[in-house]
Amino acid sequence: MISSLLVPMDDSEMAERALEYALENHPEAEITVLHVAGNPSLMGGTAAGLALEDDAGEAAESKAEGVFDRARELAAEHGLEIDTEVGMGHPARAILNRAEGFDAVVIGTHSGSLSDRLFVGNVAKKVANRAPVPVTVVR
C-alpha cells in the first residue's frame, strides 16, 4: 500500500495531470507537491532571475506559490489536502534526492519548452530510470 507520494510540479498541464492521477488513485496517501526552482544562475533559463535576488530561497518560494495554489485547488476538488515543498537545483536531481523519503513518485511526462527538453533532457525519463522508489509517469 502506498502511504506517501511525491508529485513534482511546475506550471504545466502535464504536471497537473500527474497530481490529478495521484489524487484520484491514491486518496489515502499523504501527497507532497515538490516545485524545483533550479539553481540561481546568470546563464539564463527560468532560474536566471533567482541569481539577481537578495534571497534566492525566498524568491523561489514566491515563484512556487502559483504552482502550489493550483495544486491546493485540485486537492480541494477531491476533498483532500497536500503538503508542499520547494527545491533548488537541477530538477531531476532534486526530485531524485527527495524521492527516497516516499513510497512512490508520480510525475508528468514532460514540461517546459521544446528547447528546454532538448537541452536539459527529459526530467521524467531521468527520474523513472534512476529513482529509488516506483515511478508512475502520467501523460
From TrEMBL:
Pfam families: Usp (PF00582). It comes from the Archaea. Residues 1-139 form the UspA domain. InterPro entries: Rossmann-like_a/b/a_fold (IPR014729), Universal_stress_UspA (IPR006015), UspA (IPR006016). Belongs to the universal stress protein A family. PANTHER family: STRESS RESPONSE PROTEIN NHAX, UNIVERSAL STRESS PROTEIN UP12. This is Universal stress protein. It comes from Halobellus ruber. The lineage of its organism: Archaea, Methanobacteriati, Methanobacteriota, Stenosarchaea group, Halobacteria.
